[in-house]
Amino acid sequence: MSASPPAGSPDPADDSAALPAPAVPGAPRGLAGLDRRIAGCRACPRLVGWREEVARTKRAAFADWTYWGRPVPGFGPVDARMLIVGLAPAAHGGNRTGRMFTGDRSGDVLYQALYEVGLASQPTSVGVGDGLELHGVRVTAPVHCAPPANRPTPAERDTCRPWLVQELRSLRPTLRAVLVLGGFGWQAALPAFAEAGWAVPRPRPAFAHGARVTLEGHDGLELLGCFHVSQRNTFTGRLTPLMLRDVLRTAASAAGLPHLPEERRADGT
């Protein structure tokens, strides 16, 4: 099965799209323009080499796919009231499909939970064009390229930060809550919130599952923490489906989004 590039994605031969993250302030206004610029970024040589090598060699199970092999922009409505911040795209997930948390087991867990609490139109996310819609929620990451061993370097994280800052600024009129998955995302996001105009407490709040901090500025922003939906956490029970649904409901309430109560089950009962 081949995957089509997301709508509006840059032509690989268009050098004007391949601009580094520091060029974000000059990007076209709006999230659509920002997403296009992100998808053409080549600022980190190690990440560029890795994502493109993975796209060439592929995984045997996806040998008939045309991998995206570029930075993966955020996904969700431009007027989202709630933002979910992960870590980075998976090599054979978002790096293959071109959409955040799509095509890998972490995404399977996240979108199932979003569906069960009424924030997604369907419980699965397998590829661009599968019909998935998010209700008032956008999903992004502080690092937009798949990193080797799922570990971006501090320098790569910092180089990618201007993209997250610009995304936050674009969402600022409607954004009311942010759910951060994992300690890496938490530490990467805090300075981005400050650069985007919210006041981050000092000392900086520590990450914890269930942590909740109010950031002052721009009508306020509720920042919540959740263990990452990684296989290590979900397979060992460190993060259970119930825990994830509970924190999603808390974040949705903080954002003023309608959501379904715990009585909603995966089978609809």
UniProtKB/TrEMBL annotation:
UniProt keywords, alphabetically: 4Fe-4S, DNA damage, DNA repair, Hydrolase, Iron, Iron-sulfur, Metal-binding
Pfam family, one: UDG
Compositionally biased spans, kind Low complexity: 15-24
Region named Disordered: 1-24
Keyword check for DNA repair: yes
Superkingdom, natural source: Bacteria
SMART domains from the UniProt entry: UDG (SM00986), UreE_C (SM00987)
Residues of the Uracil-DNA glycosylase-like domain: 73-248
CDD domains xref list: UDG-F5_TTUDGB_like
Family designation: Belongs to the uracil-DNA glycosylase (UDG) superfamily. Type 5 (UDGb) family.
Protein name (record): Type-5 uracil-DNA glycosylase
Annotated organism of origin: Streptomyces actuosus
